[in-house]
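Attaching the record inline, Q. Sequence:
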Amino acid sequence: MNDFLELGLPQSLLHSLKRMNYTIPTPIQAQAIPVALTGKDILGSAQTGTGKTAAFVIPLIARLLAVPHETALVLTPTRELATQVRDAVHALLDHGSNIKTALIIGGDSITKQIQQLRAHPRIFVGTPGRVNDHLMRGTLKLNNTHFLVLDETDRMLDMGFGIQLERIAKHLPEKRQTLMFSATMPHNIVKLSEKYLTAPERISIGSTTTPIAKIKQEIIHTSESEKYGKLLSQLTSRTGSIIVFVKTKWGAEKLAGKLEEFHSVGAIHGDLRQHKRDKVIQAFRNQKHRIMVATDIASRGLDIPHIEHVINYDLPQCPEDYIHRIGRTGRAGAEGEAVNFITPQDGKKWKAIHHLMHPDKKFDEPRSFQKPDPKKRTFSSKKPFQFKKKEGSEKPFGASEKPYKTFEKPFRSSEKPFGASERPYKSSERPFKSSEKSSERPFKSSEKSSDRPFKSSEKSFGASEKPFKSSEKPFKKRRPS
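Structure, as predicted:
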């Protein structure tokens, strides 16, 4: 098929394609659209940036124009991809079309979505979680939905939407047309297709594990401490729009905050509210920001033609995400560049990415990834410092290792002689004179001395426990009469 005119599409749809300068279909469009127009199920895969969205949106609109009472549902893994699909539907619909759409995604106002659903839309585009919320509320009915599209199915399963898809399928008619597209075809995707598809047509365009040939890939070996400095150097030397991918939400905010001192930067990650996400993407699309720092939430479905460079500041956790990341550039036949910062800790990740792209090619591990052999001795050019032993430096047996220090006090016995006062002598005290009484007075009943002489606690036989009081009269001897 060399032209959209050969497909027998409705006239209004052909006008929209002409307005958008869609004249020659891409390989995935040329193979998928004719099959979909016949009503068959499709299990398709294609490289990112090859026009896959239009491959299912065009037959979707053609079917709704032909059957006025039917509706269609498109499920995507992320809000950004759902928004992009909704925009593609609006672009292909004629301005005077009576087909309405509803965007059903998480993070958006559910009240606004209920108002859209009350307007009786015929095309529902959303994420599995929020679609299930409306089904439970009873605000969404899928009784007449005979056209189902599962886009980026592998990503939906990776994000744990398998149970959500099963719940949604229970609300759909058994007799329907289903188009399932996936970037990769692992065993779980094939098993899922057996559950939801009926005698599907298998369509595969190119290798889904190989990047587009027009994307130039570059590797920069660095360390964690030098990574930020080299990133500044790359951003300064390159022109055009750039996406910098990091692995965490916190890392995206931190890196964007540091780069704001030198460049116009926006950050996008999963913790942002939907209106904030839309604002950041729109500013980047309108080139108000030259640089956008993002997590893997922007690795799929983000179609911005003027992106010239992709920088993987952090390598992705999943090797397949690497293909989607660098696929944000070089779209629609354009050229692009991808720069990868690789630290010694990224050795296993880069090896997995290499095996995904080149399964038959041996991986030559760089020297920076190689760990030193503990059994093999390594010698450096500089000799290590060694202490030289002097003759006679050996210590005799029993010698103390701690040298004598002059400021240490000599040994003094802690024992005090009997009757010695603990109070030190002060110069303010009067010296002892024979004419004066001593400061150490003998024990008296009327006075209390601080330094009392030692007394035995044992009492003599017949001694009274009551002490002598001065008020009692002393014994006097009677005079003879």
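Confidence is low (pLDDT under 50) at residues 434-440, 445-450. The first helix runs from residue 11 to 19.

More tomorrow.
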